[in-house]
Inverse folding.
C-alpha cells in the first residue's frame, strides 16, 4: 500500500490448473474492501491476477488484450455496490505465470551481464 499516493497494489497468484477467469471478481472485491477499510484514503487500485489458465470466452467487460497477445488489462471506476457512488478507480491485469517468469529473467539477465554474475541455481 502507498498511503501517501492513495494507492494499493493487489497481487493474486492462482494454483496451477485453476482458471483465472473464475477469480476476476476477486480483484474488485479486494479493492472494495481496501477502499472501505481505508476510510477513503485509498483511491487507486492496481490488481494483478496471475495463473496458467484463462478461458477467454469468460472475459466479460472491457478486457483488452496486450499487443503481444500475452495477457489482458482493464481500467474502470470502482463503485460502491449499493449506492453506485465512486470509491476510486482500478487498473487490473490478467497475466500468465510463464510470461511473468520470462520477463523477470530478462530483467535479471541485464544486471547479471553488467555485474558479470552467474546466478544459476546450482551456484546459489
Amino acid at each position: 500500500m502507498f498511503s501517501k499516493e492513495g494507492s494499493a497494489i493487489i497481487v493474486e497468484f492462482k494454483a496451477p490448473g485453476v482458471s483465472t477467469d473464475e477469480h476476476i471478481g476477486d480483484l474488485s472485491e479486494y479493492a472494495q474492501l481496501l477502499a472501505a477499510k481505508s476510510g477513503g484514503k485509498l483511491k487507486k487500485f492496481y490488481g494483478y491476477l496471475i495463473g496458467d489458465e484463462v478461458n477467454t470466452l469468460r472475459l466479460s467487460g472491457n478486457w483488452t488484450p496486450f499487443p503481444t497477445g500475452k495477457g489482458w488489462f482493464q481500467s474502470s471506476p470502482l463503485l460502491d455496490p449499493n449506492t453506485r457512488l465512486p470509491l476510486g478507480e482500478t487498473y487490473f491485469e490478467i497475466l500468465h505465470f510463464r510470461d511473468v517468469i520470462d520477463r523477470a529473467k530478462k530483467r535479471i539477465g541485464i544486471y547479471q551481464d553488467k555485474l558479470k554474475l552467474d546466478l544459476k541455481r546450482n551456484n546459489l
Q: What stands out?
A: Residues 19 and 53 are 5 Å apart (CA to CA).
